[in-house]
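Q: I have two molecules that I believe assemble together. Could you output structure tokens for the complex as a whole instead of separate predictions?
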Amino acid sequence: MTLLIVIAIIAVIAIVWISVYNGLVKSRMQTKESWSQIDVQLKRRNDLIPNLVNTVKGYADFEKSTLQAVTDARANVNNAQGPAATMAASDQLSDALTHLFAVAEAYPDLKASANFMKLQEELTNTENKIAYSRQLFNTTTASYNTKLQTFPSNIIAGVHHFEPSEFIAAPESEKAVPTVKF
Amino acid sequence: MLYEQIQSNKRRTVVLLVGFLILVGLVGAAVGYLLLESLTIGVVGALVIGAVYIVIMVSNSTQVVMAMNHGTEVTQADQAPELWHTVEDMAMVAQLPMPRVFIIQDDSPNAFATGNSPKTAAVAATSGLLALMNRQELEGVIGHEMSHVRNYDIRISTIALALTAAITMLTNLGNNWWLFGVDTGRDRDDRENNSGGGQILTVVLSFLIMLLAPLAAAVIQMAISRNREYLADAGSVELTRNPQALIAALRKLAAAPPMQDVDASSAALYINDPMKKSAHLFDTHPPIAERIARLEKM
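A: Yes, here they are, computed for all two components at once.
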């Protein structure tokens, strides 16, 4: 009888252990997947930029410094190591692109060109996807890290050496305090 | 919270199905009595038609609903880049599969989602919505629709739509045959000279059911749809982190004229009442002002 109870308890613990462990693995996988989402979009944007630069170059008097800033920022994203540095470089590229599109407002011919319009939509789309996949990454990271710190999953995570995932900080421009108007 | 909402939606879908089947049975009884002088045939017939109808709707809901609302499918990003990309973004951040995308040619801005589960979901937007909203506002509207998908609101509202349409069909049938039905009733009275009291009572009851059935259908549709809109608004903000854009979008929706050619039984699916009725008792949607007030508090 006692033996049966002991076996039952061990079986219950084993089942709980396995399901929590699998939950942790799934959670960690989700953070990795959401990081790869960001990565895909960063590459996509870097592929689009040479096209954009070539299109804009055709307009002779277009500010060289604006174009140079975009090209440099693109190279920095390519060379950056690790999530934090990559995202910091990515934010600079976002700013450079925003500036380029703002400058383009002054070139009616450029703005009207079908090629430029298509590139603008593609880049806007990619920028949005970077922002949303970053949000998704932070959401999945939060739920994974919570599991690492709460009972009973923290014990299992400790035994199997699950490492916490790091958040990506919000870009500087989004951190700015919004101005309240009355 | 989200999990509870999903469970409650799944539970209420079953309750709704059972409740509607009882109502369909009652309507069938009324129609059967007037038409064929047989309650049993009426009830059985209505339940069979109802069951077949539900099966067809459940397996084909997207096709049927989009046909009812004149939606044309968009299958490539090139056809409507802004809409396609926005739906992609919202599906990604809500961790849902990419739904099918449809456009309805109508100048009035509106949108809805339908389907039986997130895997079979579809999102439709009017051409007016695409013309009128900027990208952030469009994200707010699509985020609202993707919240309906995630919460399984689409399942309950699609089934409610199917059932309401079925009841409307049945009562229309009953109404059209009504005069004919009373005539046979009178003939029978003359012939058999039964005590008329019981039959008159049954006729009156039949009429009550026929009158009340559409009303009941409307009440049930209203009951399932109003509160979810607040939840979907909150869900949209959770996805976009941008309550201001959704507020701006809701203002634009409120200011717009009604849709040209909208299917009445689909009205509850839309983000805002597409018919812009002034009555309040049978509103399918909470007032926009109230939705904006709740968003401003977030």
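A: One point stands out. Chain B touches chain A through 13 residues (CB under 8 Å).
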